């Protein structure tokens, strides 16, 4: 029997995370399925940022580096975030951006494996990861072997210094087995760097138990830290003593206020820092993490899986006959918190949806991507989105949308 | 005849920048002479940030990358800032931090001068500049020749790829002659990178007319952009076509939303970008720059010079007999907007001043640094600060201040 909207509403009533939606400020008339691009605004963030600007900056002025705890902010946010990563807290900090942190980690990993000349990286990974891999390889005269994520473990050999891949694919949402891949890399003497951009805050993670060496993640997707929120970075404790990353700024110095000419690396995870943190952004991210208070990450992953399963079922029932296809895995156990649906007119369909307040995103050439911020997206939202796609396609409403120019920002 | 406070008040009345102080929100009971470390809060910034968080992020959500102009924010802020640098607007953008941008520029400069094996850098420069120079030299197997700023021009030879130095010294406040040094570097076929950390917003700059190749500057000092505000970067137009920097993130890609595997560098200054900008920080900086509306930079430099001359005169009259000495230049034409006064008990004296609401900063081992945010510091503030130093020294009040621990954040 076909599902109804009432069925979806009943699923929402039974959902253990239903209460978490009230932790967010969501605009009227919007069905937001793009939290995998920019997470929604958690309640309390605006107030916290305003207090930081008016009181800590305006009144406290430079004194607030000490008195308001700004100086300790990167590590403090890292410790708050660590449980979401399945990591002991002293291994996580918040700084810079994913690409900058990936650059640091790749160089640091190569220095830990001198003599090895190959990087194994994921073919089809989010492009900027591979741009950074290429840049680091060029600077070190190394070779990059690109293979699909599922083939990384087998591609590593005794010449591999480091393997870099995404834990959850930005396109297919496929989850890689972190423990298995890492073990395979280690078996050949290499190191593994995991990109958690579509993982942190979306799926259960166990970095310590998986034996991960290094990881980078994103603050502005499922963590809801605000546009361009700083990235987080994980370094397993066993690598702290020899950590040698190339962006040697004063926040990564052991004694930044001694103003000595030589660089003395800070102990522990602080060695991943470079310059003065952008404190407005740090403040928003720190406050945003309160939305995860008391929330179990296995509930979060289960919620995203349920929403994805629902969208796939509705896709099969209603959209597949209209020329849509699925670009994400059907197997919910191996799928992250988004569903990608392809259609030849995907760009136009998505624009028509956005015009109706149903916000997903489009990834060239033909992917409509719907992300499920597990703390605030409901089953009825998925229902409404699929029925809107069906209506846009059946009615031909998408044909009224102009195609993008060659340099469009989509 | 010795100066009086009334003399200083008359100087303030005659000051063409007196009105600009009303553009800032300054706390009661504070005499703020540390704008060279963290600029004061300009009026309107808190409101702008709050609107950005509540409206653009909260209501606009991911759509605001287009509709609120977030995507164009780095270049837009760069264009707003360019007049303060004496630069045509398409050569300036805002991104990342000084150390990260310096890393990008050093590598880009080395790639523009293949075969040359030496970097000339400033001995005694702000330490993290030299940490980054050392890191880049190590990655490229190059030699660094450290010489005092005044000797950089003479130290450049035919093996020099790039020279890097500060335009205004963080310690002595000495201004280097940008045109002269750059010409000397160019005469030997090298390139010059200028650190403007203590220049932008403090002294008149003429990057284009000086023939500068590259520059990096700071958003949180004299630009008042907020703690950790993003850095700005200048690349002369003649280097745009061949610009090849190593932090190849998606915001520096010619077509970031095409998701193509290869890196295609964006045209122009946008090639200096890396990842998604931290928009809360960008928003604060953009709003803060309104404080410079209609203000001529030669007035700003003249104001800072007048305040510095005043402090030096009062130092000579009142502090030199008490064991103080001057660590900045007496020549106002070659001095930036701060004055450094040394005293053996400098750390304790500065802590005692801060306890009285007179805020400067301390730089090891013995430097008390007083910065003159030219838009809000008055002549009477300088008077009050010097008389407080005199009182702290004469009364012995500094002796009640404990010495810092070995890892103190000062």
From TrEMBL, chains A, B:
Keywords tagged on the record: Hydrolase, Pyridine nucleotide biosynthesis, Pyridoxal phosphate
The keyword Lipid metabolism belongs to this UniProt entry's keyword annotation: no
Protein's GO biological process: anthranilate metabolic process; L-kynurenine catabolic process; L-tryptophan catabolic process to kynurenine; NAD+ biosynthetic process
Catalytic activity, as annotated: L-kynurenine + H2O = anthranilate + L-alanine + H(+); 3-hydroxy-L-kynurenine + H2O = 3-hydroxyanthranilate + L-alanine + H(+)
Keyword Hydrolase: yes
GO cellular component: cytoplasm
Biological or metabolic pathway of the protein: Amino-acid degradation; L-kynurenine degradation; L-alanine and anthranilate from L-kynurenine: step 1/1; Cofactor biosynthesis; NAD(+) biosynthesis; quinolinate from L-kynurenine: step 2/3
Necessary cofactors: pyridoxal 5'-phosphate
EC number: 3.7.1.3
A Pfam family hit: KYNU_C
GO function term, MF aspect, one: kynureninase activity
PANTHER family hit by this protein: KYNURENINASE
Record-stated family: Belongs to the kynureninase family.
Purpose of the protein: Catalyzes the cleavage of L-kynurenine (L-Kyn) and L-3-hydroxykynurenine (L-3OHKyn) into anthranilic acid (AA) and 3-hydroxyanthranilic acid (3-OHAA), respectively.
Subunit structure: Homodimer.
NCBIfam families: kynureninase
Protein name according to UniProt: Kynureninase
Organism: Vineibacter terrae
Gene encoding the protein: kynU
């Amino acid at each position: 029997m076909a599902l109804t909207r009432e069925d979806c509403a009943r699923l929402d009533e039974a959902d253990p995370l239903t209460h978490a939606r009230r932790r967010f400020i969501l605009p009227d008339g919007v069905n937001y399925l793009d939290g995998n691009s920019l997470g929604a605004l958690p309640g309390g963030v605006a107030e916290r940022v305003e207090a930081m600007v008016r009181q800590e900056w305006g009144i406290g002025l430079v004194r607030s580096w000490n008195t308001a705890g700004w100086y300790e902010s990167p590590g403090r946010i890292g410790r708050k975030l660590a449980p979401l990563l399945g990591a002991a807290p002293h291994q996580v900090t918040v700084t810079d951006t994913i690409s900058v942190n990936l650059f640091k980690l790749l160089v640091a990993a190569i220095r830990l494996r001198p003599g090895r000349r190959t990087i194994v990286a994921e073919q089809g990974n989010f492009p900027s990861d591979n741009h950074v891999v290429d840049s680091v390889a060029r600077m070190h005269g190394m070779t990059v072997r690109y293979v699909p994520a599922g083939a990384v473990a087998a591609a590593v050999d005794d010449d591999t210094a480091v393997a870099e891949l995404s834990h959850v694919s930005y396109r297919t949402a496929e989850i890689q087995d972190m423990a298995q891949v890492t073990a395979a890399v280690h078996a050949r003497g290499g190191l593994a760097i995991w990109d958690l951009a579509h993982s942190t805050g979306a799926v259960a993670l166990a970095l310590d138990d998986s034996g991960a060496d290094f990881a980078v993640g994103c603050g502005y997707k499922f963590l809801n830290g605000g546009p361009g929120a700083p990235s987080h970075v994980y370094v397993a404790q066993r690598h702290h003593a020899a950590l040698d990353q190339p962006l040697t700024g004063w926040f990564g110095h052991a004694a930044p206020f001694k103003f000595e000419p030589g660089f003395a690396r800070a102990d522990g995870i602080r060695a991943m820092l470079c310059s003065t943190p952008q404190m407005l952004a740090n403040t928003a991210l720190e406050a945003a993490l309160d939305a995860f208070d008391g929330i179990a990450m296995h509930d979060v992953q289960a919620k995203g899986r349920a929403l994805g399963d629902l969208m796939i079922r509705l896709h099969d029932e209603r959209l597949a006959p209209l020329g849509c296809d699925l670009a994400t895995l059907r197997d919910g156990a191996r799928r992250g918190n988004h569903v990608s649906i392809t259609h030849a007119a995907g760009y136009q369909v998505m624009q028509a949806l956005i015009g109706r307040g149903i916000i997903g995103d489009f990834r060239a050439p033909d992917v409509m991507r719907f992300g499920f911020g597990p703390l605030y997206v409901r089953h009825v939202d998925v229902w409404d989105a699929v029925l809107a796609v069906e209506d846009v396609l059946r009615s031909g409403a998408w044909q009224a949308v102009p195609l993008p120019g060659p340099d469009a920002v989509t």
